[in-house]
Design brief:
The protein is mainly α. It has 13 helices and 5 strands. Bound molecules: tryptophan.
């Protein structure tokens, strides 16, 4: 019998903090759907992480709504709940269980060095919880439970992944080979999309200026408006050049949506001016996002289907993660009955 080669595992979660932006999509999410042929993929929603900050703590209805909407959106992006494991973190108990164990193998000092913890605790000075401090060990548990080889993440999560690697190596050194040591996949294939109003800043949905970002569920008219009012420069040629940050950003967006190279785009719009270029970018973005929005509307209206997918996929994730958790518990010395 022919031995089927085992695919390597890719794992990533996204927090249910609201509709992802065009930046999240072109930078990462768009690629998720393409990975499932080559890799064994687990993707999901990090709702346990979302209660580490006051924005979502004590807002149960909001958290539930965001979680369901994000799940529908992941389906709308083309992530298959059959080919992948597509699940909600809080539905799988092993994440919290392994996180506790990893907490006991993580130094206070190393967790204190996490720059995201420092930034977030500076922002919420009078409301810093132990959960916020332990956020990276929960993330390590997420990854290590599935023996993931690769973890697609943003630059901001690199230090957390480094910690997960350290914890995995530490565990392996004490108890023998147990965890796969994961590697980051950072923006290798995705586009880095900047703010439409301040093109030196990353596009972000937490920006106060709503004109600075496009979400995946924006109305076409709003997308057109935002792109038409995007900041450019006082020249008129569509060229990708240092210092032309606004135009560069639009070129990147256009390229990511159409598949055209920068050179081809420069040629296409040579002598045409920024107005015509912005219209074309807006059309391309609308064309890219509208099928997603349509599929989203269908999924979000079908609560039964969503629940069924979530249940079945939580079950798949539970079976896999429980295997790892059992091994860990045995190694650590918890009495087996
Ligand atoms: N912390 C990640 C973020 O905010 C989300 C996340 C949670 C994650 N667990 C993970 C990402 C495991 C990759 C792997 O972006």
């Amino acid at each position: 019998m022919e031995q089927k080669e085992k695919k390597q595992t890719v794992f990533s979660l996204i927090q249910p903090t609201g509709t992802p932006t065009l930046g999240n999509y072109l930078g990462a999410l768009k690629n998720w759907a393409n990975m499932s042929d080559e890799y064994d993929c687990l993707f999901g929603i990090a709702d346990l992480h979302s209660i580490t900050v006051p924005d979502f703590r004590e807002k149960p209805a909001q958290l539930r709504k965001n979680t369901r909407e994000l799940y529908a959106l992941l389906l709308a992006l083309g992530l298959s709940p059959d080919k992948n494991t597509l699940f909600v973190q809080s539905h799988v108990a092993a994440h919290s269980q392994l996180a506790w164990i990893l907490n006991c193998y993580t130094q206070f000092g190393e967790a204190s060095r996490m720059t995201q913890f420092k930034d977030k605790s500076a922002k919420h000075k009078d409301n810093i919880t132990v959960g916020l401090f332990a956020y990276p060990t929960l993330m390590a548990a997420d990854i290590l439970l599935y023996n993931a080889s690769y973890v697609p993440i943003g630059q901001d999560q690199k230090q957390h992944l480094e910690l997960a690697r350290n914890i995995a190596e530490r565990f392996n050194a004490i108890y023998g080979e147990l965890f796969t040591v994961p590697k980051p996949l950072i923006g290798k294939t995705g586009a880095k999309v900047m703010s439409l109003t301040e093109p030196l800043k990353k596009m972000s949905k937490s920006d106060e200026n709503e004109k600075s970002y496009i979400t995946l569920l924006d109305e076409p008219s709003s997308i057109v408006k935002k792109i038409k009012s995007a900041v450019t420069d006082s020249e008129s040629e569509v060229l990708y050049r240092e210092g032309k940050d606004g135009i560069n950003n639009l070129i990147i967006m256009y390229s990511a949506c159409t598949g055209q190279s920068i050179k081809e785009i420069e040629n296409e719009f040579s002598g045409k001016g920024y107005g015509a270029f912005k219209s074309a970018v807006a059309d391309a973005v609308v064309k890219e996002l509208m099928p997603i929005k349509e599929r989203y509307n269908q999924y979000i209206a079908d609560k039964e289907y969503l629940d069924k997918c979530m249940r079945e996929n939580a079950e798949k994730a539970a079976v896999r993660s429980q295997r790892t958790l059992n091994k860990v518990m045995k190694k650590v010395g918890f009495l087996q009955i």
